[in-house]
Design brief:
CATH topology of the largest domain: Rossmann fold
Helix content: 40-55%
CATH class of the largest domain: Alpha Beta
CATH superfamily of the largest domain: HAD superfamily/HAD-like
Length: 233
């Protein structure tokens, strides 16, 4: 593939042939929200007296639920967070997303192609459905996913547990060994692997080496590469 940034380890051939279903992560895969969300989090961590820049914030928290990480933040600052800290984070995050979030370049064409050929697809996120409605709505992708949206608020355990991917597959009638998950974080990759799927990882904010080490079958550099990897062409 001329100009491709796809990385396929020789010991991980990936899924043979076209998959029967595709499940997308949301943040960083469908919508370019990670720098926005982590930018707000970085500001609030520094307001607590910590010394975080955006790169460190992304490296530490990307792909994880901030609510689930509150104990870790409390350990860093050496005191309990105030009861209104997380609601403030959600408000400030949502205000920023509502103004700035956009679709990942090229992903709309991939989703339109899946819809055109009738391949089942869904979104399964570590975020809650309210956040997905905001980001997918703002980016123009919500009509594709309104009936196949699965969030952390719908399952007992968030990623890296496989629950949200298992729920998505049960609902759309997909078999794990014929499903490709599209992820961009080690946390999400581990969830997809634990669910028994094949995981293709977008190497945008994480390096291919980190994503492959987490269990991805391959990495790719842009959504323009994905149709060929999924055998959609």
């Amino acid at each position: 593939m001329p100009g491709s940034r796809t990385v396929v380890p020789p010991d991980r051939p990936g899924l043979q042939g076209r998959p029967d279903a595709v499940i997308f992560d949301c943040d960083g895969v469908l919508v370019d929200s990670e720098p926005i969300t982590n930018g707000v989090l970085c500001e609030m961590l520094n307001e607590l007296g910590l010394d975080f820049d955006l790169e460190r914030t992304i490296r530490t928290f990307m792909g994880k639920s901030v609510k689930d990480e509150m104990a870790a933040i409390e350990a860093l600052i050496g005191r309990p967070l105030s009861p209104d800290w997380h609601p403030q984070f959600v408000r400030r995050r949502d205000e920023a997303l509502a103004v700035r979030v956009a679709a990942i370049p090229g992903v709309r064409a991939v989703v339109e192609r899946l819809a055109a050929i009738g391949m089942p697809f869904a979104v399964a996120s570590g975020a809650d459905c309210a956040k997905m409605r905001l980001t997918l709505g703002r980016s123009g992708l919500l009509p594709f996913f309104e009936r196949c949206m699965f969030g952390a608020d719908m399952v007992a355990r968030a990623k890296p547990a496989p629950d949200v991917y298992e729920l998505a597959m049960r609902t759309i009638g997909a078999s794990p060994n014929r499903t490709v998950v599209i992820e961009d974080t080690p946390t999400g990759i581990r969830a997809g692997v634990a669910a028994g799927t094949t995981v293709y990882a977008l190497a945008s904010l994480n390096s291919p080496a980190i994503l492959l080490d987490a269990g991805a079958s391959l990495t790719f550099g842009s959504m323009d590469e994905l149709p060929a990897l999924l055998r959609l062409d």
